[in-house]
Design goal:
The complex is a heterodimer of chains A (about 325) and B (about 325). With about 325 residues, chain A is mainly α. Chain A has helices at about 1-25, 25-55, 65-70, 80-95, 100-105, 110-115, 120-155, 160-190, 195-220, 230-245, 250-260, 275, 285-315. In chain A, helix 2 runs antiparallel to helix 4 (about 80-95), helix 8 packs across helix 9 and helix 8 (about 160-190) packs parallel to helix 13. The longest helix of chain A is centred in the middle third of the chain and has 35 residues, at about 120-155. Chain B folds into 2 domains: about 5-225, 3-Layer(aba) Sandwich (Rossmann fold), CATH 3.40.50; about 235-295, Alpha-Beta Plaits. Chain B is about 35% helix and about 30% strand. Chain B has helices spanning about 45-50, 75-80, 95-105, 110-125, 140-150, 170-185, 195-205, 220-230, 250-255, 280-290, 305-310, 315-320; strands spanning about 5-15, 20-30, 35, 60-65, 65-70, 80-85, 155-160, 190-195, 205-210, 215-220, 235-240, 260-265, 270-275, 295-300. In chain B, helix 3 (about 95-105) packs across helix 4 and helix 8 crosses helix 11 (about 305-310). The two termini of chain B are about 35 Å apart. Classes of the chains: A mainly alpha (about 325), B alpha/beta (about 325). The interface of A and B includes residues 10, 17, 111, 112 and 320 of A.
Chain lengths: ~325, ~325
């Protein structure tokens, strides 16, 4: 027991120091400003349109005021969750791209490694500290939104809404965690911070812009003409395309949060007429929505863990020289 | 006393086909100051990294304070303070904060941490600058802070990699004096690496000469010069006013002297190689015989000559082994 607490102490010391560093850095202040600004902008737009959205009784989601706050827009600015699918990678990359190489270049890594600490503790401290900071930021925003909504509208929060909003926050944090572990891994691999930042941004751009184009091109050249196919074949090809697209973490993220924030989404793949027959356009319970996005969430966590494992592998046996 | 605190056995490290360290055997004893002397790229830093478990040896073992550095680096790092050659600090923190962070990582109790850090800053002479950000520190001050950083964990052994690099001569003298004083007062074992032989000569009890991954010789400086230039290390050159004739009558007489092993005559200059220091007796003898002595030069082999002798053959290879970042 005693030795365990002794081992944990350097870790918490490192996490404390890293968090303090993040909070004091200009980079983080700029990122917070960016996210808070988009939050305010999208909230402003959705508040202006909230009356129309909740008054639309044809929409099964109209009872969920707080989910509507997050998703409603008049198309002048994207809703907050779409904004986040762009900003979350930026947040993760900018908090992690120089985690190890800046320490190495300033000569502090050797000094740190000469102390009686485990190497993986350093990686973990970098990862955990950034996540703690990001989590508190998102949690604060979500609570601010709910509190602000309560004050402005006076409408009670449904327990289901609260769960869905927290689910959205958790998935967003997992998405940031993926980009964070990817950029930490790159910061170990590349000695120049600029190289690792560029590589991380390159991967992000590839997945958000080019990946879908590549998939479409590949599919167009391989897919037979749909008019010669049976319905089952079309569906199976469709599923194949969707699954290929789901390799991209951004796709997983937007699938997952769309399902959580719009309770009437019942499937992420193609749905046949037979399946839709007699279905009442109603909302799913929270548990069902979670079951739909479970593969997406596991995929995100798995990519995060594998990036982190790779970082660990690269770092553990490496020679530390300044 | 005679228990080696650092024990390297057959230590080797290969980078591809290049042998950075080649079958190194070295013992450093408790309380001594050992100097690892060698040109750039000789493998000094690699050896030190292997002692701390920061890199794995290709073969051989490194035992420090009784622990195997490769298998249990944490145990070694608890006892050993290491100052890297280009020591860096967190620029956004003050010297005191930097020091306290390292203290916390070493598990020092929080309530005595600040007092201890301030005390150590006083020892290294940085009290006045303890609340300055380290980005404003000069190279010499950083070096001192690096030493404080090493001392705060209360180590048994301190390893300093090129501690005198880039400091001005006064700074070097003060710094080395500080190291010597600390070692003597606290019984610290010090291993320092350098390519500056004069610095090493000033403080080290024993020296190891390290070239191209091999330890060519070790011992204190007189042993080293003895090994290098034979046991008869004392050479005295005496210059006379008048030229010495071809068949000098005193030559056979001098050769009778037991201490003299060799006598060379070159016009008016006599060079004696002796087993012990008999310069005074030689001068008296020549004066009594009526010769006018105008110059006496006693040759002591210092590290300069040792260094020269060992490194001259390697000077060509050195350029290709130069570290990429200095």
């Amino acid at each position: 027991m005693k030795s365990q607490s002794n081992d944990a102490r350097p870790f918490s010391v490192m996490v404390n120091k890293e968090i303090a560093d993040h909070i004091r850095s200009w980079r983080f202040i700029i990122l917070i400003a960016l996210i808070v600004l988009t939050f305010i902008a999208s909230m402003y737009v959705s508040l202006a349109n909230i009356k129309q959205a909740t008054g639309n009784t044809k929409d099964p989601n109209h009872v969920f005021l707080y989910l509507k706050l997050l998703t409603t827009t008049d198309n002048s600015v994207p809703p907050f969750h779409v904004f986040l699918s762009f900003l979350a990678p930026l947040l993760g990359i900018s908090l992690g791209f120089d985690a190890i190489n800046s320490e190495q270049n300033s000569g502090t890594l050797t000094r740190l490694m000469a102390q009686p600490i485990y190497r993986d503790n350093l990686l973990l401290a970098k990862f955990v500290s950034a996540l703690v900071v990001v989590s508190s930021l998102f949690l604060t925003l979500a609570l601010l939104m709910i509190g602000g909504g309560l004050v402005i509208t006076g409408v009670r929060v449904e327990p289901q809404e609260l769960l869905r909003i927290f689910g959205f926050i958790v998935i967003t944090i997992a998405y940031v965690a993926f980009w964070l572990s990817l950029s930490i891994m790159l910061s170990i691999q590349f000695r120049q911070a600029a190289t690792s930042a560029l590589t991380a941004i390159g991967i992000w751009l590839f997945f958000t812009i080019f990946y879908q184009i590549v998939i479409n091109l590949a599919v167009k050249s391989f897919l037979p003409d749909p008019s010669f196919l049976t319905q089952e074949q079309v569906i199976s090809y469709n599923n194949l395309i969707l699954n290929l697209q789901r390799i991209a973490p951004s796709q997983l993220y937007s699938d997952a949060i769309t399902t959580l924030l719009i309770p009437s989404v019942r499937s992420l793949g193609p749905v046949t007429m037979e399946q839709m027959a007699r279905a009442i356009p109603s909302v799913l319970p929270f548990k069902e929505s979670v079951l739909i996005v479970w593969p997406q969430v596991s995929g995100l966590l798995a990519s995060t863990v594998s990036c982190f494992a790779l970082a660990y592998y690269l770092f553990m046996r490496r020679e530390i020289r300044s | 006393m005679k228990d080696p605190i650092i024990q390297l056995k057959g230590l080797s490290k290969n980078y591809g086909s290049v042998k950075a360290v080649d079958d190194l055997n070295l013992d450093v004893y408790k309380g001594e100051i050992f100097g690892l002397l060698g040109p750039n790229g000789a493998g000094k830093t690699t050896t030190i990294l292997m002692m701390l478990g920061l890199t794995d040896p290709s073969s051989g073992t490194a035992h420090v304070c009784g622990h195997n550095a490769t298998n249990s680096p944490i145990a070694v790092k608890k006892k050993v303070g290491y100052m890297p050659d280009s020591v860096g600090f967190y620029d956004n923190m003050t010297a005191l904060e930097n020091l306290m962070y390292i203290g916390r990582l070493n598990g020092l109790p929080e309530n005595e941490l600040e007092a201890r850090a301030l005390n150590i800053l006083e020892i290294v002479g940085l009290t006045a600058d303890s609340h300055k950000k380290t980005s404003a520190y000069s190279r010499g001050m950083k070096q001192r802070l690096g030493l404080a950083d090493v001392l705060i964990k209360n180590p048994d052994v301190i390893i300093l990699d090129e501690p005198t690099l880039g400091i001005d001569p006064t700074g070097v003298r003060d710094f080395l004096a500080l190291i010597k004083q600390l070692s003597r007062q606290q019984g610290l074992t010090v291993l320092l690496s350098s390519h500056h032989l004069h610095h090493v000569q000033q403080v080290c009890d024993r020296v190891g000469i390290f070239v191209n991954g091999k330890l060519l010789a070790q011992g204190d400086i007189s042993t080293l010069s003895g090994k290098l230039f034979g046991t008869d290390g004392h050479v005295t050159a005496i210059t006379l006013d008048q030229a010495i004739p071809q068949a000098w009558p005193l030559e056979p007489e001098l050769k009778q002297w037991e201490a003299i092993t060799q006598l060379t005559i070159n016009q008016n200059e006599l060079e004696f190689t002796c087993s012990s220091n008999i310069t005074a007796a030689l001068v008296r003898f020549l004066v009594e015989k009526g010769y006018d002595v105008i110059g006496v030069h006693q040759k002591n082999y210092g590290l300069d000559d040792i260094y020269q002798k060992y490194f001259e053959s390697n000077s060509i290879e050195n350029t290709s082994y130069e570290k990429s970042i200095e």
